[in-house]
Design goal:
Elements lengths: L7 H12 L5 H16 L3 H6 L7 H15 L4 H5 L1 E4 L2 E4 L9 H13 L6 E6 L5 H9 L3 E7 L2 H13 L5 E4 L15 E6 L4 E2 L8 H4 L8 E2 L6 H13 E10 L5 H10 L3 E7 L5 E7 L2
Parallel strand pairs: 3-4, 3-6, 4-5, 6-9, 7-8
Antiparallel strand pairs: 1-2, 9-11, 10-11
Helix pairs in contact: 1-2, 1-4, 2-4, 6-7
Length: 290
């Protein structure tokens, strides 16, 4: 056995010893705790009350596997297969990006910008795991939400997340850049939101291994020559699909925030606003159709 005793505390010590060169003690304890909860189907209270938990051999092998995958820089969310986003449990795998806290801030901005008591139609472009669409549907009970992605694998994951969270979303396979798509030819929306690919290829060398080696490049990168390609295509599409006074929301690359604002303004949108995230980065944009 790789630990002296088959206890949760012994595994905790093992995690701290093996992972301390890659992660902080706080991160490691979180990994240990969430792995135990996942494996043994416990909640936080159970974990506190059952300090002397004894683990089976298969439990220990599972936890050692988690530790080895963490040593290989694999994102913890992919290892345990889920994360929490705006109060929802979102399944995660390598077909879609892991939902980020700053994207929760974008969702909050949308919710605070609309009338929650009125019926509202929403389109989420480049939905990935479906986290934005699902969070909005969950919070805005009178909404009808549609979502698109170019990846069938991502859409399959998003559909699974909708099913597991008992939420109804209309999903469509669509290339966000192609303007000739007519799947919404008879629809208009109050809100269009997108967290599209926006990282230039030249930034690959600066990225962490847990992102670069595991998360889907299709959802991350754009050409160095056209970093705003998705913003331009989605904004132009939104001119047709948004209702008058409808809102367009984007998550942004902080280095291209002002350029994106100029682009959206040049297309004729009003009230174009950039919002910083909690780290002080220019992370979100809101615009209104005239």
């Amino acid at each position: 056995m790789f630990v002296a005793q088959n206890t949760a505390e012994a595994v905790k010590a093992y995690f701290l010893e093996r992972l301390n060169t890659l992660y902080s003690d706080r991160e490691i304890v979180t990994f240990w705790k969430e792995s135990l909860k996942k494996r043994l189907k416990l909640n936080d209270t159970d974990l506190i009350l059952q300090k002397d938990i004894r683990l089976s051999e298969s439990d220990l092998l599972y936890l050692r596997s988690v530790m080895k995958r963490l040593l290989n820089h694999e994102p913890f969310q992919y290892i345990v297969g889920e994360t929490f986003f705006y109060g929802l449990s979102i399944q995660c795998d390598e077909s879609a990006l892991i939902p980020r806290p700053e994207t929760e801030e974008l969702v909050a901005w949308i919710i605070n910008s609309v009338d929650k008591n009125k019926p509202i139609s929403i389109l989420d472009v480049c939905t990935g795991s479906g986290c934005i669409a699902l969070a909005l549907k969950n919070q805005l009970k009178n909404s009808e939400v549609s979502a698109t992605d170019i990846s069938q694998e991502a859409l399959d994951l998003a559909k699974k997340n909708a099913f597991l969270n008992h939420l109804t979303i209309d999903f469509y396979l669509e290339n966000a850049i192609l303007q000739e798509s007519d799947i919404f030819i008879n629809n208009t929306f109050d809100v269009i939101v997108s967290n599209p690919p926006y990282i230039p290829m030249k930034e690959k060398n600066t990225m962490e291994k847990n992102v670069l080696d595991f998360e889907p490049h299709l959802a991350l990168f754009v050409s160095d020559d056209s970093p705003l390609i998705f913003y331009n295509a989605i904004a132009q599409k939104s001119l047709r699909l948004l209702k008058t006074k409808g809102y367009l929301f984007f998550e942004l690359h902080e280095d291209f925030a002002e350029q994106t604002k100029d682009l959206v303004t040049s297309l004729g949108f009003d009230e174009v606003e950039i919002k910083q995230d909690l780290q002080g980065k220019n992370r979100m944009l809101k615009a209104q159709k005239k």
